[in-house]
Structure to design on (453 residues):
């Protein structure tokens, strides 16, 4: 267990970080400004400090100077919503351990904390964090098809070769990409993900390559793109088949020359990035239709990895179900239940058009809504394959033993669905349900909601 100090004038950011680290079992204090942070450090030094750069009055770099002057061995991780290379370099020169850019990625936070704790020698905390990160991104299965995927992943992981991962939605393409990164010599460097299908075509170039202030409406400050953020690490281009032709041309240049140019700038920036791409489309068909560049396809498709749909590896379903049950019991705080062989057989008989992601969501539904200590074939029939999922959902809620429990189950299920609809963007979800963001964070913590892989 580590002593962590978070210094950020944004209450929502401080509370969110506190929630993440307390859930990992650490003692966490939050300061809203530099003077309060220094007073807390004087009273009781922290093992690791997460320090915002931009704060009113005394800014983060000044606080960093003061902390390091008092304790040259202090581990301080700078965080900023307006990060620039110059700021990062300045912070590093002043003794910062690392520099993270908002919006903060939970996995990157945990990996950075793990590395900092290794420096501190807190081995128990290191092992716990390592286990948590890896269990969430574990590839589970023993079928011939999945063994082939794992074998190819292991062979290519420790190389610099680019990889193109193909497969239907929900098969686990991101898990394979993360496994490749973990097996590479870049494992301690950033893993940066870009969902090309989720970003409007007019913004994809800014997202990938960054922009300079004033280059377009809304560009109020210089911003580094994903290629720069992934420098020395791995860039995962998810749903690359949805990228515009204009963006494809710039990605091709970045791969060929190792340079990017921010939108609105003429200055080239050198980047060292390993690219792993994924798609659920047939890129050869997209090339024939003129929607994807053939030269980019051959640049990305150095080593292909195809992930089979779940219906083609049904023998993995029992192992996957046990894995999801273990994860849910550890992270979602659901009531422990035993899944009977009959229920497993029933799950194996289904087609799973949503693949592993759908199976994970189904196991969660069964764990939450089934009554009694075991989940049987009848529960699967009622809650999964009863045709109208909403009907089964509603009837099960009506069996809640009390009105209070009914409200809790309904609220939890509703918020989980809304978070999924908005890709776990808490701000957007809060707006859609007309709820203050701070209240939504509290409910996420209360119900132990976590983003599924």
């Amino acid at each position: 267990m580590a002593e962590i100090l978070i210094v950020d004038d944004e209450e929502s950011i401080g509370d969110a970080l506190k929630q993440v680290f307390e859930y990992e079992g650490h003692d966490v204090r939050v300061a809203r400004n530099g003077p309060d942070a220094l007073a807390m450090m004087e009273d009781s030094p922290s093992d690791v400090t997460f320090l915002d750069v931009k704060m009113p009055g005394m800014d983060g770099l000044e606080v960093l100077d003061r902390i390091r002057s008092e304790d040259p061995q202090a581990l301080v991780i700078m965080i900023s919503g307006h990060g620039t290379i110059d700021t990062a370099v300045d912070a590093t020169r002043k003794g910062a351990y690392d520099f993270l850019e908002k919006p903060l990625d939970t996995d990157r936070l945990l990996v950075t904390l793990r590395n900092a704790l290794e420096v501190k020698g807190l081995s128990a905390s290191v092992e716990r964090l390592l286990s948590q990160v890896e269990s969430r991104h574990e590839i589970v299965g023993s079928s011939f098809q999945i063994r082939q995927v794992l074998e190819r992943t292991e062979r290519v992981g420790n190389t610099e070769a680019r990889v193109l991962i193909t497969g239907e939605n929900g098969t686990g393409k991101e898990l394979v990409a993360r496994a490749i990164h973990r097996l590479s010599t870049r494992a301690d460097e950033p893993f940066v993900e870009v969902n090309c299908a989720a970003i409007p075509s007019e913004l994809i170039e800014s997202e990938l390559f960054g922009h300079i202030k004033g280059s377009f409406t809304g560009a109020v400050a210089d911003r580094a793109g994903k290629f720069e953020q992934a420098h020395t690490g791995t860039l995962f281009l998810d749903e690359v088949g949805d990228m515009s032709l204009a963006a494809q041309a710039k990605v091709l240049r970045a791969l060929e020359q190792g340079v990017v140019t921010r939108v609105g700038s003429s200055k080239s920036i050198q980047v060292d990035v390993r690219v792993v791409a994924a798609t659920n489309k047939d890129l050869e068909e997209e090339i024939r239709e003129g929607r994807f560049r053939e030269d980019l396809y051959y640049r990305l498709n150095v080593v292909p990895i195809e992930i089979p749909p779940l219906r083609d590896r049904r023998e993995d379903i029992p192992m996957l179900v046990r894995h999801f049950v273990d994860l849910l019991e550890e992270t979602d705080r659901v009531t422990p239940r035993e899944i009977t062989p009959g229920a497993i057989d029933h799950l194996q008989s289904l087609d799973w058009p949503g693949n592993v992601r759908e199976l994970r969501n189904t196991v969660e539904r069964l764990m939450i809504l089934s009554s009694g200590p075991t989940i049987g074939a009848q529960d699967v029939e009622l809650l999964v394959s009863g045709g109208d999922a909403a009907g089964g959902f509603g009837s099960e809620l009506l069996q809640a033993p009390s009105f209070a429990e009914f409200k809790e189950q309904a609220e939890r299920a509703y918020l989980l669905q809304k978070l999924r609809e908005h890709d776990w963007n808490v701000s957007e979800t809060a707006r859609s349900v007309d709820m203050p963001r701070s209240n939504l964070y509290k409910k996420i913590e209360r119900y132990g909601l976590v983003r599924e892989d």
About this structure: The radius of gyration is 23 Å. The first strand starts at residue 3 and ends at 7.
